[in-house]
Amino acid sequence: MRLTLFDLDHTLLDGDSDVLWCEFLMDQGVLERAAFAERNAAMERDYQTGTVSAEDFCAFYVSTLSGRSRAAWQPLRRRFLDEVIAPRISVAAHVLVQKHSGAGELVVMTTATNRFITELTAAHLGIAHLIATECETSADGFSGRPSGTLNMREGKVTRLHDWLAVRRIDLHECDSTLYSDSINDLPLLCAVRKPVAVDPDARLAAEAAERGWPVISLRRPTPAARLG
Fewer Cβ within 10 Å of end Cβ, the chain: N or C? Predict the structure, then answer.
């Protein structure tokens, strides 16, 4: 079994889905910029430095969905993909996904961002399988709270094992690869056979150098030798 995992934000996507979603909602007048912009920027900084808890991070962004149903959000979600997300996915990112999919591998997107925001992105990239933070819902729509194990840091490892177990697949028996940009994904990078740092943040770049992991870019042309 050849398993290929892709992180989304700052890996396949040039930007962060959660942060961009909030900016989009502020532009549309759904969120009040004066009250929300500073909190959004602070959360992005704390995520990048690894100082925010998974609980605080996921709860903050899932809260933006509160009080509306999937159907009510759908027009904005579709515009968000078309106007904000799709233009930030490079040709190189599409080619890399297609390379692994075309080889018959099991390709999965795994992201801390919630499923509702990212499922259209996965479909846009041609990735059939998505592991993401789940959102609590009721008859009235989204509660604004995450549900279950958060798909972030060690939670990504737990969620992957659970996802594979349903399919009777053992991660230790897979020829597994993970592409990620972030030090937050270090637990999952250490759990796969072939970790690949993609446009890594400074801390992950240092880890990759120390551990001898390959480093590639989906923003700039990457020498063939570095792609392995």
Answer: C
Task: Give the whole-angstrom CA distance, residue 115 versus residue 84.
Answer: 17
Order of all β-strands in the sheet with 215-216: 141-147, 129-138, 106-114, 2-6, 175-180, 194-198, 215-216
| Residue 7 falls in the annotated catalytic set | yes
Residue 195: give the domain boundaries.
Answer: 2-227
List CB contacts of 80: < 8 A, sequence separation 6 or more.
20, 21, 24, 117
Catalytic residue (one of 9, 16, 185, 201) = 9
Which CATH number covers residue 148? 3.40.50.1000
pLDDT digits (tens, 9 = 90+) for 76-108: 999 999 999 999 999 999 999 999 999 999 999
Write the DSSP assignment of 91-130 as a string of letters. Answer: HHHHHHHHHHHHTT-EEEEEEEEEHHHHHHHHHHHT--EE
Beta strands at 175-180 and 194-198: parallel, antiparallel or unpaired? parallel
> Quick check: is 14 catalytic?
no
| pTM attached to this predicted model | 0.92
